[in-house]
Design brief:
The complex is a heterodimer of chains A (138) and B (141). By secondary structure, chain A is an alpha/beta fold. Chain A has helices at residues 15-25, 68-79, 93-102; strands at residues 7-12, 29-37, 40-46, 54-59, 84-89, 106-114, 117-123, 129-135. In chain B, helix 2 packs across helix 3. Chain A binds chain B through residues 7, 29, 32, 34-37, 42, 56, 61, 64-65, 91-92, 94-95, 97-99, 102, 110-111, and chain B through 5-6, 9, 12-13, 15-17, 19-20, 52-55, 68, 121, 125, 128-130, 133-134, 137-139, 141.
């Protein structure tokens, strides 16, 4: 029986910039930051109230991880906003939206009433997009 | 003029400003009265709005930020008293008590534990990385 998810990966263009985005803008906690060679790091962050889920900010590493042509393809796909990685939840979406906007986060959808709650969408500094939802109370 | 995403967005703006003020000035003496005045709310109204937006009182939030910063600083080789004052506490016993209440460890024990962990990460980094990643991506070679 699978009980829970502990790690999920997001491919990022620049790990240092991604660290700044996820920690200083989204307010996530840095869990791991370990050098793995060739200027890359095992870098994970967790949302504040979900310390057991580590989001791995994976470098599109042209060395050991990918063949150069695959790394170039992945780099293009990420930058062009191909990947939507998940849905984050907020207890008060308008406050979160305002705070992230103040910190320079780019929103592609402003908070909008949907049948499941209020939803906004934003992009990380690499081009990956996420949904931000305040779930409608049952 | 562009329509606001919420009719009371101006209120959110002021509450967020107050929260960001705490984020940036946690190391200084911060009084609830000063922040609420700055945000142009009465003390009671501000408390209610802040709690609605962030699920905790401004004071609880300030404590949380201070403890979080203290945890970061204790990972370096700064002394407990140095960290205590650097994050805005003015008494070492109250800092120690609060830190223990929040983390389960005294600041000294936490610092030792973290410094040991840092050492281990340096010496045996792959102990901290799921093997599937390390092997699949050839990091161990």
């Amino acid at each position: 029986m699978i009980t829970n998810l502990t790690h999920a990966s997001v491919y990022v263009i620049d790990q240092e910039s991604a660290r700044d985005f996820y920690v200083n803008k989204l307010g996530f906690e840095e869990k791991m930051n370990i050098p793995i060679g060739e200027g890359a790091f095992w870098l994970t962050v967790s949302p504040k109230d979900q310390p057991n889920l580590e989001i791995t900010l994976m470098p599109i590493h042209k060395g050991g991880m990918f063949k150069p042509e695959i790394a170039a393809q992945l780099d293009n796909l990420v930058k062009s906003g191909t990947f939507g990685f998940g849905v984050f939840e907020s207890k008060d979406i308008y406050a979160t939206y305002q705070e992230l906007k103040d910190k320079g986060v780019e929103f592609t959808k402003e908070p909008t009433e949907e049948f499941y709650g209020i939803e906004a969408m934003f992009k990380d500094d690499s081009g990956n997009w996420f949904s931000l939802v305040q779930v409608k109370p049952e | 003029m562009k329509e606001e995403v919420h009719p009371k967005m101006y209120i959110y703006r002021r509450i967020v400003e107050a929260k960001l003020f705490i984020d940036q000035n946690y190391h200084q003496k911060i009084e609830l009265r000063n922040i609420s005045e700055k945000a142009c709310f009465s003390k009671f109204h501000f408390l209610r709005l802040f709690k609605k937006a962030y699920g905790k009182s401004p004071h609880q939030y300030l404590t949380e930020v201070r403890i979080k910063k203290a945890k970061e600083l204790l990972q370096s080789d700064r002394s407990v008293s140095d960290v205590c004052y650097a994050v805005g506490f003015d008494s070492i016993p109250s800092f120690t008590l609060l830190f223990k209440k929040c983390t389960g460890f005294s600041p000294k024990a936490y610092a030792e534990q973290q410094q040991h962990k840092q050492q281990q990460k340096k010496q045996t980094p792959f102990q901290f990385i799921p093997n599937c990643f390390a092997e699949n991506f050839g990091w161990k070679e």
